[in-house]
Amino acid sequence: MQPLRLCRSLLFLPASNPRAIEKARGLPADLIILDLEDAVKEEDKESARIAAVEAARQGFGGKLVAIRVNADIGHHFGEDAVAVRASGADFVVLPKAETAKKVQDAASLSQKPVLAMIETAAGVLAAREIAAHTAGLIAGTNDLSADLGLPAGGGRSGLVHALQSIVLAARAQGVAAFDGVFNGLDDADGMAAECLEGRAYGFDGKSVIHPNQIDAANRFFGPSDAEIAAADRLIAAATGGAERHEGRMIESMHVVQARAVLAKARR
Ligand SMILES: CC(C)(COP(=O)(O)OP(=O)(O)OC[C@H]1O[C@@H](n2cnc3c(N)ncnc32)[C@H](O)[C@@H]1OP(=O)(O)O)[C@@H](O)C(=O)NCCC(=O)NCCSC(=O)C[C@H](O)C(=O)O
Ligand SMILES: [Mg+2]
């Protein structure tokens, strides 16, 4: 399985915040995303770019690292993407992706695999073509809610079609799919519910914005002990073709699913 598909938690932090960068080095997130876009004030854009490159050069204790560039062509995007090339980042994150061409530009300027954020209606409709040029897709649920005109605080029912389209597009191209952020900073129950929902939609992991959200993402997107034990039993029992196992029919695709559970558990 592609290593990126084993990531459960993607921690965003503003590259303009040295304290958060330092803190992230000791946090159990699977992928660190140093943000140059919406989390960074306009006057801090250039110093944040320098800080992101340096932070990625120093690394995060072996964790995967990405830098999210600004989206606007000709205004930060080019300089950000070229800076990522010289950094030690594993990926470049392209926000507000709407065309395969923009993804190719990000890849060519940064010389890094792209994680494209789908966060507009146009992005959702082009997700399949976009995914073909990426290592994975990330749902940008705040921007998407705004772009779709959804009422603030109205839950995610208006996003369901878009979220499932993102997972479908990623799977059709064989790349990773990550759910968006949960904005409630002190709402553990809400975070847990959204993790369960995202997992049920088929996402590989979830974007998080605060240290206190990482454990929930890791727990809900990592297989439970019961799932691991069930996968072990299924693989041991399967002999090929349709057969009865623990009161259910299983076939070869269930063995593939069980192996994926064990691969994620090993990670
Ligand atoms: C949201 C925050 C601004 C909240 O900040 P604050 O209230 O100051 O946090 P705390 O005091 O509770 O922080 C406690 C300690 O944890 C550290 N911290 C906080 N957040 C992070 C983080 N993301 N990574 C690493 N460390 C973090 C603090 O430094 C404190 O440490 P200590 O000093 O030791 O006590 C803040 O959490 C934050 O900035 N979060 C990230 C925001 C961000 O990156 N946003 C951009 C990506 S999300 C997005 O854009 C969505 C998408 O595009 C869409 O459209 O949906
Ligand atoms: Mg966004």
Automatic annotation (TrEMBL):
Protein name as catalogued: CoA ester lyase
Gene3D superfamilies listed in its UniProt record: Phosphoenolpyruvate-binding domains
Residues given in the record as Mg(2+) binding sites: E119, D143
Annotated signal peptide: none
Domain HpcH/HpaI aldolase/citrate lyase: 8-211
Alphabetized UniProt keyword annotations: Lyase, Magnesium, Metal-binding
Stored InterPro entries: Aldolase/citrate-lyase_domain (IPR005000), Citrate_lyase_beta/mcl1/mcl2 (IPR011206), Pyrv/PenolPyrv_kinase-like_dom (IPR015813), Pyrv_kinase-like_dom_sf (IPR040442)
